[in-house]
Automatic annotation (TrEMBL):
Lineage, broadest ranks: Eukaryota, Metazoa, Ecdysozoa, Arthropoda, Hexapoda
Stated name of the protein: beta-glucosidase
Active-site residues, Swiss-Prot/TrEMBL: E407 (nucleophile)
Organism expressing this protein natively: Popillia japonica (Japanese beetle)
Transferase recorded as keyword: no
Keyword Signal: yes
């Protein structure tokens, strides 16, 4: 007589994967070591130090270029199934072009990947996490359509070297941030300030670069090693400010998230209709001068008679041809999703003579509730329920794609007993589980941003996302476990969210 075996109930499916993420510029340092070329972030932090709040650089950062084996030790301790990191294009190809491969760059990533494999940790490799080789920016960067070819050629080099080791490839991290903050509002490198123009040019090139790389992989590499190839898009949840503002929420999601997701993940492909309609419409208005038609209503009456293409010039949004729409559609094995926070949205149409083109195209005001728990990042408040809503919306809008959460994280000031980080992850994971169990959203993996404190772009070292604290004043860049390390380690081992009612003990004994 045998008693039935007691199965410990776990929150997460058995095949669910957990990981942590970093990005080359944010952790590697070694900005000009052993043959690495200059990239757009090197250029920006050196020429315009005031663009970084603490005037810092990523010249050394966590010095993972030197201490990557330590990183592997901590990844092993955490027990993560995979490590999401990015390759520095200009470390591998110093000029950006495939004609010269830097042997030390190649050796560095080979060593990292080999040591991960030794420890049973799968690499999830991002090909582009914002650090474009400077020579490629000198020819216009992502606004130049030729970049689709150069990106695919770089990817070809990487696939050829490491296709055998890497089960997950991510072409781009956050095309929205690349194009809008880099080429639209000019906050991030390369600081191009042409909102509603250069950002849309960048977007078209980037989507074609992604698709070209996916097709290249299919033809040349998938027959040998069938990795999953995807793209990572970031999105907050947009909660309508009032019942009547549901349209503003829908519009923001479609014009931001959908800008990237629609061409790849929708049945029809192409940009969302609302994005095309609104940019086309406003592009026409912009061409009618105030002096000719002083009053808004008259402008409207007048231009409504003309189609966009009959008018003075073309839309600011460069369109895809039918062939390109087909070429891009379906080019992802999974959707990588970065999610951090939620905004409350309402419709806010800007006047026609406003030069904030992209803002006008969007026509949405974004706010946050001051009652929501803040973080050390101005844009990040803790709103766990938004995660479930976003996941369910994506499932509905894009026919239930396979999703990996490629980033989710909380910013503080670097506390070792980081209870707020632990609470953040517990609440967001619970919300994600509700989406999986109740709304049947197909989430396969979850990644914490970040393994360790690092160079947080224009915020420099003033805000911290790490599970490990890093001593940036010490040349050894010692890493020290925060409380969240034990929390995440237990979570991964048990595939269950640990009880956090009792405060996590600070396990750092001799820091
Ligand atoms: C991500 N937002 O960017 C990046 O992929 C990481 O490199 C970065 O370190 C991390 O978030 C933390 O900032 C984001 O405004 C930038 O919602 C902005 C937002 C989200 C993600």
């Amino acid at each position: 007589f045998l008693l039935p075996e007691v199965e410990t109930a776990t929150n997460f499916p058995n095949d669910f994967l957990f990981g942590v993420a970093t990005a080359s510029y944010q952790i590697e340092g070694g900005w000009n070591e052993s043959g690495k070329g200059e990239n757009i972030w090197d250029r920006m932090v050196h020429l315009f130090p005031e663009r970084i709040v603490d005037h810092s650089t990523g010249d050394i950062a966590c010095n993972s270029y030197k201490y990557y084996l330590e990183d592997v030790t901590y990844l092993t301790y955490l027990g993560v199934h995979y490590y999401r990191f990015s390759i520095s294009w200009s470390r591998l190809l110093p000029t950006g072009f495939k004609t010269y491969i830097n042997p030390d760059g190649k050796r560095y990533y080979q060593e990292l990947i080999t040591n991960l494999a030794r420890m049973g940790i799968k690499p999830m490799v991002t090909l582009y996490h914002w650090d474009l080789p400077q020579p490629l920016q000198d020819i216009g960067g992502w606004t130049n359509p030729v970049m689709a070819r150069y990106f695919a050629e770089y990817a070809d080099v990487v696939f050829d070297l490491w296709g055998q080791y890497v089960p997950f490839w991510i072409t781009f991290n956050e095309p929205g941030e690349v194009c809008e903050t880099g080429y639209g509002i000019g906050i991030n490198a390369p600081n191009v300030n042409l909102s509603g123009i250069a950002d849309y040019m960048c977007g078209k090139t980037l989507l074609l670069a992604h698709a070209r790389t996916y097709h290249l992989f299919n033809i040349k590499y998938r027959p040998k090693c069938p990795a999953k190839v995807g793209i990572t898009i970031s999105s907050p949840w947009y909660e309508p400010k009032a019942a009547g503002e549901a349209e503003a929420s829908e519009r923001a999601l479609r014009m931001e998230f959908g800008w990237w997701a629609n061409p790849i993940f929708s049945k029809t492909g192409d940009y969302p209709k609302i994005l095309k309609d609104r940019v086309d419409k406003f592009s026409v208005y912009e061409n009618l001068t105030e002096s000719r038609l002083p009053k808004f209503t008259k402008v409207k009456d007048r231009v409504d008679k003309f189609s966009v293409y009959e008018n003075l010039t073309e839309s600011r949004l460069p369109k895809f041809t039918k062939e390109e729409i087909k070429y891009i559609r379906g080019t992802a094995d999974f959707l990588g999703l970065n999610h951090y926070t939620t905004y409350i949205v309402s419709s806010q149409e800007l006047p026609n003579n406003s030069m904030q083109y992209r803002q006008k195209d969007l026509g949405v005001l974004k706010e946050q509730d001051s009652k929501w728990e803040p973080s050390s990042a101005s844009w990040l408040r803790v709103v766990p329920w938004g995660f479930r809503k976003l996941l369910s919306w994506i499932k509905q809008e894009y026919n239930n794609p396979v999703i990996y959460i490629t980033e989710n994280g909380f910013a503080d000031k670097g506390e070792l007993n980081d209870v707020k980080r632990i609470e953040y992850h517990s609440s967001y994971l619970k919300s994600m589980l509700e989406a999986m169990e109740q709304d049947k959203v197909n989430v396969k993996g979850y990644t914490i941003w970040s393994l360790m404190d690092n160079m947080e772009w224009t915020d420099g070292y003033t805000i911290k996302f790490g599970l490990y604290w890093v001593d940036f004043l010490n040349p050894l860049r010692r890493r020290v476990a925060k409380s969240s390390v034990e929390y995440y380690k237990a979570l991964i081992a048990n595939k269950t969210i640990p009880e956090t009612t009792t405060k996590a003990a600070n396990v750092v004994c001799f820091p």
